[in-house]
Amino acid sequence: MDNQKRRFKATVDGKTYTIVGNRSESHMKAVTEIMNEQLAQIKKLAPQTSKEEAAILLAFNAISDQLDVAEKEAQAKKTPTSE
């Protein structure tokens, strides 16, 4: 992956944002799709939730998932592999 910064227009929950980063367009599209799917799921499960509350729940879930992955990686490094 190159380190060239790119601008990407992402439409999340009907609002367009310009994201600057070095990820590929396909990566950014995938992230946008997942965000919209998860926001729709949150709204379906809790229709009274405001956009701000839904965004906080989405961020909380994303960080929780990230922590789970980091813990699994740390555990894998501690566990000796059998050859």
TrEMBL record:
Domain of life: Bacteria
Pfam families linked to this entry: ZapA
TM stretches of this protein: none
Gene3D superfamilies reported in the protein's UniProt record: 6.10.250.790
Protein name as catalogued: Stimulator of FtsZ polymerization and component of cell-division Z-ring
Organism: Secundilactobacillus kimchicus JCM 15530
